[in-house]
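Progress against Task 2.4 (sequence-to-structure conversion) is shown through the following example record, which the project officer requested during the mid-term review.
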Amino acid sequence: MIIRIVYFELKRGVFFLKASLCIVTYNNRDNISAALGSIIEKTKGTELSVYICDNASSDGTPDIVEKEFPQVTVIRNTENRGFGSGHNTIINVLDSDVHFIVNPDIMLTCDTVTQMCGFMKDNPDIVMAVPKFVYENGREQFTPKLTPTLRYMLGGRFERFGGVFRKWRREYTFADRNVTEVTDVGFCSGCFIAIRTDIFKRVGGFDERYFLYSEDADLTRMAQQHGRTVYTPQFSVIHLWERAYMKSCKYFFIQISSMVKYFWKWRGTKKRKKCE
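Structure tokens generated for the chain above:
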């Protein structure tokens, strides 16, 4: 009996949680192959179901995925209703333990999916986690980690002017802190999120009132009602970061609209204490 139990555990693996992963695409033919290739190649230690929810791309993105990655399930949405809506497309079919929300400009250099599944298994009080994001040269990216406030949002938009705006941005992103241990955060960036699937379903997925931007901050707040949301610097992924809202008036106004929706929704709600 003991031998059978040991064999059963080895067969399932140390990290036996079942995982799912979804990427929402919109005209991402230039980077989707690299993203999916790295995910499929590197994920070896856990059972993983991969979904592409395409928001009516006009550049053939879903065709590329179906041709190059037949093991990936492709959902073709007939219109672009936004990032959160795209991810919510598959929420009712998920049967995993941990669900990964991933951007099409992410690449893995190791089995991050299995590692983070193991982390979630070992820490049942944690409901959502994000890794460290780095550029291709390994330099760290400083994405938001504190709960959004108006000054932090302004800091992100106007940091190039220096002064107080840069100070706010650096505070918002932990840029002046050497974070080497798991740390509770108020904002888990939607670039790469690991969330317990039951929690993702319980909160109803993303709030679809956000077309783009702030929906990940909003999901973090909803998840915090069920457990801890954390930054895990021991794990890292490559993120080809463009920050489109800094280059386009269109995306800037979308960001402003999302900010207004976020602050109105959470008005009067006490945020988590600032991380010490």
